[in-house]
Amino acid sequence: MARKRRTLPPPIFDEIASLKTEAVNPRTTRIDRASTLGILKAINREDRLVAPAVARAIPRIAQAVETVVSAIKRGGRVFYVGAGTSGRLGVLDAAECPPTFGTPPELFQAIMAGGRGAVFRAREGAEDRTAEARRMLARRGVSSKDVVVGLAACRRTPFVVAALEEARRIGCSTIYITCNPCPAHGVSPDVVIAVRVGPEVIMGSTRMKAGTAEKLVLNMISTAAMIKLGKVYGNLMIDLWATSEKLRQRSVRIMMLATGCDYADAVQALRASGGSVKAAVLSSLGRERHLRQGRPRRPRSR
User: What pTM, to 2 d.p., does this model score?
Assistant: First the structure.
C-alpha cells in the first residue's frame, strides 16, 4: 500500500497565521449563537478599541502629516496605494479632498490594485500583482517630489509592498499604514504607522476594526495637512467647492460666521468673489480692518 504523502503548508501560511489581524478573537468565538442584539453589542465593544489604538499612534501620524506638508510645499503630490478595503479607503480620502479643501484633483490621488473596477467589485487576486503596482506609479508620473502612502491592514500586501519599494527607488517620501506591529517586508518607509487594533470580530475581516482605524488615520493626515497649509480659518473650511445647493448655503454660513455679516451681505460678497469663500472672507475682513483704522481704502491701480 502506497504511503500517503504529507502535504506541508507554504511559508506564507505560517506568515499569515502569525498576523494579529488574522488571529481568532477569543471574545467573539460564540458570536454565531448570539441574538441580533448580542451580535451588534459584540461588534460595538470591539469598535471601541479602535480610537485608543489610533491615539497611541499619534506621534507617528504627526510625522506623516509633516511629511505630506513638506511634499506639497515643494510641489509634490500624495498617492494612496492599497488593495481591497485599504485601497477603497484611499480612493475615498483622495476624492473628498477637492470639495472639502479646494485642492486640485491631482494633489491627492489613489492607486487601487485591480484599477478603477476594483473599487466597486472585489478583485482579490489583484493584490498579488507587484509588476502592476510599479506600472501604475510610472503611469502617474510619480517623482521624487511626491509622497507615497501605502495602506495594508495585514502589512504584507504584495501590491503595496512593491509600490513602496518602487517609490523608495524613485526617491519619494514614503509612509506605511498598517494594523500589525511590523513594517513591510524588505521595505524601510520613512514613517510607519502601526495601529494595533487586535483580532477582528470575524477572523481576518479587516474591513472592520482595521478598516476603521485606517479611515481615522487618513482623516487625520489629510485634514491636519490642509489645516497647516491654510485651508481652514478657525475651524471653518473656507476653501470648499460650492458644487451643490447644500454647499452653497454652507458657504454663506461660513461667510457669516467668519465675518459676522448678515445673510444678504454674505450672498453679495460671495457673488462678487465668484463663489470663493476665502476671497470673500479676506476681502470683508480687510475692508473692516481699514474701517476700524479710520483709513480710506486705496483705489486699485489699473
Answer: 0.89
